[in-house]
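User: For my dataset I need records formatted as: sequence, then structure tokens, nothing else. Please produce one.
Assistant:
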Amino acid sequence: MIFEFIDDAKKGQLKVGMTRDEVRKIFSSKVQAFKKTPICKVTSDDFYNLVIHAFYDDETNKLEGLEIFQPNRILIEDNVYLLGNDYQHLLRILTSKKIKYEQDLMGVNLKNNKLRIYVPHADERVAECACVYVDFKEGCSLNIK
């Protein structure tokens, strides 16, 4: 799947506050519920055929974020796709397009922490961008292209 990042909380198909049924209807795929941690009050959804996890707020049970894995891709702007590139190549693309980012021990944060790219072995020569967490609570949404 290809997702389009929208830097607006209300304009996309997938956004904060959606019910579990609304999310499941959009993905229309087999799903397995799991607990992210033993202390979580609500389960998360694993859309295992799509390699996507949906996370819900412990208090409201409404959508708060998605974890998107390869082979999915996320278009952020100016023909820049997240996932599908190795870590160093992605950093070169972001730098050349003048897209601001912050690096930390887990990977790269973009768009004021709305997008977090997990890179488990960033110190390796050809490190893989494993997944992207989209934090809808920070004020963004996604469309499916």
